[in-house]
User: What shape does this take?
Amino acid sequence: MKDCKKIKKDMVAYIYNDTDEKTSREIKAHLESCPECRREHKELRKVLLYADSLKEDIDNAVESVEWDELPSQIAERAFSKKYSRSHHKGEASKRFLSSILTPKWAPVYAALLAGIIIGGALTFIFLRPGAAPEGTSPSPFMVSSDFIETMDVEMARRETLDYLDQSKYLLLDFVQASPEGAAQYWKSDFVEAKTSELLSKKRYMNQQLDKYHMAKAKAICDQIEILLLELTGMSGELSDAERDQIRELIEQRQIILKINLIKKELQQSEV
Amino acid sequence: MQSQAVSAEMDNITVLAERAKQGDREAFMTITSLFQKNVFQLAYSFFRNREDALDIVQDTFLRLYKKIQFYERDKSFKSWVLQIAKNLCIDRYRKNHNKHDNKAMGSAEMDSLPFTDKTDTETNSDTDIKRIISKCLKELPERQRMIFVMKHYNELKYTEIAETLGVAVGTAKSLHYKAVNNLRNLMNPYLGRPL
Assistant: This one.
């Protein structure tokens, strides 16, 4: 036999006849033998009987409604809503477009246009190459002006070194050659082309030497330039006297030594 | 025979639901006419107010029309409709709880209820009993109240209640027992002695 707790759990369902046959039999048997559960059963039945008193009101309320008309009324609302939803979607987008294209928005569009133009101009002014102000932190996507300047200095240094090297070998060849050899050497096409190349290179280098304050290098380069100009200025075959004069000039001014010193200095200042 | 009839009805409902989903107005109206009284009974028993109940009927079928593509065929259509109605009732109740909690029965009216020490409850008039039961029903927690209404006035089976509320059958039974027991305790002071 089930105990009272289990019986109570199914008691209300039993009153509604919503228990299976076996449970109903067990509850019925228990109620016959348990006065406490019998009292509970009676009280709960009474509550449900009282609750029945509202059924008449509910039935009257149900009777008061025009049930035949209600489905069509609801359908009317449901389908008109559906229609109005899809219809309104198109209407709403049209209304939106026409409302934003009215003249009253003209100042807004003008302001937007002006903003775009000014923004574009400012972007061009401040972000164009070389426009970054000094001290601006470098952007990870841009080469800074400092870096470019360093590269320019390095290029100038290397070009100066190259100029000095070529000049040194040219002068050394001249100084160390025999008197006949020196005359032939100086008249050769190679030396003529080389001299002209060095002279034109010097003209280009002048700007860089001034810009990057390479005063010592400029001084020796100037002397070499003068020497080369003198050599090219001499027409015809070099006389012994002229050759000795030039050699003396090279030695007197210690041009080779100076070239070596400047070269050393430039090599040490490599970036 | 009965199960065959239920199965045939379910098939019909499924066909109607499918047609309503495609925008068939007649099918939608047929569905409405099949279940409108169930929804009204539930809402009226819950609110004890005709206008509220009619609003719930309208809103239930409008929502049904909107959500019909989500109807799962393995679920009872009636339970699905009542689930929508139940949710709307609870929403409305919570929304209006503070506004007109005692719309059907004002506080002055409640005060006039017969707190009595009469031993014979049969002497209470029918009107008093209705008012007492209405008031006590309103004092039940909303979930217990909904279950009581479904079982007592809509005469649903526990399996249907469980499906509508999305709970186990045992839970539905247990909640219903609590509802009836609480109702008894709430009614005792008005009836003068334990029932």
